[in-house]
Amino acid sequence: MDADKIKRLLHLENNKERIIAEDQMFESGVLIPIVSYKDCDYILFEKRSTYVSQPGEMSFPGGRKEKEDISLKVTAVRETIEELGVAQEDIQVLGKLGIMVHQHRSVIHAYVGKIQWKESYFSSYNPTEVEEIILVPYEEIIHQKPLEYHIKLKAYDYEYNLEGIKKQLFPTKQLRLPGIYQDEWDLGYRKIFVYPLENVTVWGITGRLLHELQGLYLESDNK
To answer: Quick one: average pLDDT of 81-86?
Structure first.
């Protein structure tokens, strides 16, 4: 893995662009960690603990921007330190991969960083957030072709409460919206990238970010 190559390919963090409906979303900073250990490079994944949302899922370190964070890059580094227990001086941010606007009201700022890994880091992670850390050889996964699937998304103008009573969320009939928008309607399809590894599966947001890095890296090889 050529860190200088990745650094050249990634854009410097630009001035923050305006995101429509940003007031209804929350911003997160995520770091894709490339770990250097014993003369080899790996991509690090976290298996989320049972104490956090989406337990057992594979993810990269990251989380919501705090008030004291002066930038989303600071957020990504802070979260990496908190989750993995690595020292800040062992983290080198190579650049910003991009911004992902997720349907679950989150705006994810993704960065790529290199970590000089120490033996002690294998046991320094925060068990309240991380159940296990998994290192996958960089050259192996960067050339692995993912499985691709499509899932169908739907919107509903109602929901049922715990007593089974139907509650109208959006009065589509009273607003005289077209019939196709009453009760439920399709929101189209979303592509899912899946990376089956030896004992785990990487997909969802993590799979999408990995696919973006993979595409950027491999595209440069073809130029």
So the answer is: 97
